[in-house]
Amino acid sequence: MDKTIPGDLPALWRQRAETLRSFGDPNSARLWDIAAVELERAQALFAAETLSLREAARESGYTPAHLGSLVKRGKIRKRWKCRGQCSRPVKRNPQSF
What we know:
The protein is mainly alpha-helical. It has two domains: about 5-50; about 50-85, no CATH class. About 55% of the residues lie in helices and about 10% in strands. The chain is built from four helices and three strands; from the N terminus they run ααβααββ. A three-stranded antiparallel beta sheet has the order 1-2-3. Strand 2 and strand 3 form a beta hairpin. Helix 1 runs antiparallel to helix 2 (about 25-50). It is elongated and about 60 Å long. About 5% of the residues are buried.
């Protein structure tokens, strides 16, 4: 089974593009290059939108220990993604009721 991880794919795809160019197929090579750029951009966006446990605690109002226990119990993922409206737990202010 292949042990390729997503972070390795852009370089692999660029190697394939070079191979295709060397065989005289620049159109297919261009598609591999475009795919590599798109994946790199998506990975950078994902990395920028992912919070550490400490950052998530600061933003949610919960303690890192409590969030850690939620992770251990499988209630939330270890790293949160935030796209515009975040879907992570936020501690409510009791005065707001």
